[in-house]
Design a protein that fits this description.
Thiol Ester Dehydrase, Chain A, Rossmann fold, 2 domains, elongated, 19% strand, alpha/beta, 403 residues, seven-stranded parallel beta sheet
Length: 403
């Protein structure tokens, strides 16, 4: 589940100058920029040493002129002190405070006649504070005796790493799947990655489909070296692509016995009225396509007892506001699987409603609804797949829902 929450507020106050300001010539500087962002643990103590005089920050006039031209500004339209301050603020947040995990949240600055240059003899970083309630860093300072600035930045959580060592801490059954072949859409990132690794570590052969995450696919192939794993690129929402992926997986791994419809487009929290009919319809089509593509290709060659699994969401029954499009798309897919179970009695169909799961897409600086571990949910789902009841060909289950 991809549930990004964000709020961006931008306020600009423009000052029109009487005439253009000539760009200064390049001057020698003692400032040596970092070649990699800092990764210090956020705390008041970690950043205390950065307070004091601003560095002897300088810019290349030719590079600045090229940048302003790309943005549509005329030479001299923006005072040089303001240009250099904005460039320094970007460097400061992205490379120093907080550095690698930065997410700019606030920038206010005032310039007057005393603030003709930046940095200057009176420009200083006065105070740096870390607010652990929101994982936000606030920096206050001065540009001149009469002008000041304030910079805010969220500290994004570190990337989620679905490491094999973390999965192995769970009680696994090494031969749980006995060499059965799986194809998972969206299987190289997020929950798909956790599920693919969990199945592979328990004796399954896994073909993971992806659209754009080639680097993640290559990384997973290295991590699962020694296990039966293949990654297959392509838009599985296209019928011919889906059929080709299943054909390759069958040739390289063995006849596909289980397909897992996991892929989903990014989910933006939007009110129904703001999304509009076109936006709602577009999201529904994008959500349904990968599921339709994979399950239709699978059913053409599925063996008796073959299983199609739908990764659904608890939001279908109990979702927050602004997710009507997501709930509707998942509800449509659930209804599809229930009806396919009647049309294809020789195959099995599993609908698994999952809670909000911790992935890079849901890893927020602060979140009222803390997501659950993707590994915990993947291990639980793997057990349900392996223990599908023999007396039925349709199962609807909810996993890991908080009471």
């Amino acid at each position: 589940m991809v549930l990004p929450y964000s709020l961006v507020h931008v306020h600009l106050q423009i000052e029109f100058l009487a005439g253009p300001q000539p760009a200064p010539s390049a001057t020698p500087t003692a400032f040596i920029p970092l070649d990699a962002p800092l990764t210090a643990v956020p705390s008041d103590a970690a950043y205390a040493g950065l307070a004091g005089d601003t560095p002897d920050f300088d810019t290349d006039p030719r590079a600045v002129a090229n940048l302003l031209a790309l943005l549509g500004f005329r030479p001299g339209q923006i005072p040089q002190a303001q240009i250099r301050f904005l460039l320094w603020a970007s460097y400061y947040v992205g490379m120093q405070v907080p550095g690698r995990q930065a997410l700019f949240s606030e920038l206010t600055a005032s310039f007057d006649e005393d603030a003709r240059s930046f940095p200057g003899s009176t420009s200083r970083i006065g105070e740096i504070q870390f607010d652990d309630r929101f994982n936000r860093i606030m920096t206050a300072g001065s540009i001149s005796e009469k002008s000041a600035f304030q910079i805010g930045a969220f500290v994004r959580p570190l990337p989620v790493n679905t490491a094999l060592a973390q999965i192995r801490r769970h009680p696994l059954e090494l031969e749980l799947f006995g060499g059965r072949t799986f194809v998972i859409s969206g299987g190289t990132r997020g929950f798909g990655e956790a599920l693919a690794k969990t199945i592979a570590l328990q004796g399954g052969k896994v073909g993971a489909n992806f659209r754009t995450s080639a680097r993640d696919a290559a990384r997973m192939a290295r991590e699962l070296d020694g296990h039966a794993f293949r990654a297959y690129p392509g838009d599985i929402g296209a019928a011919d692509t889906a059929e080709e992926i299943l054909r390759k997986a069958s040739q390289e791994l063995g006849p596909v016995e289980v397909c897992i419809c996991n892929a989903s487009p990014p989910i933006e929290a939007k009110k129904f009225i703001d999304l509009g009919i076109e936006g709602f319809t577009r999201f529904m089509a994008q959500s349904l396509a990968p599921t339709l593509g994979l399950v239709s290709a699978f059913l053409k060659t599925a063996p008796d007892g073959g299983m199609a699994v739908l990764i659904s969401s608890v939001y279908v029954a109990d979702g927050p506001k602004d997710f009507s499009h997501y709930a509707a798309a998942k509800a449509a897919q659930e209804n599809l699987f229930e009806n396919l179970a009647r049309e294809y009695p020789r195959q099995r169909f599993l609908v698994a409603r999952l809670p909000k799961i911790l992935t890079d897409q849901t890893n927020l600086a602060y979140d009222r609804e803390k997501p659950q571990s993707s590994i915990d949910i993947a291990v639980a789902l793997a057990k349900i797949i392996a223990a599908f009841p023999a007396q039925s060909n349709f199962l609807h289950t909810t996993i890991g829902a908080k009471r």
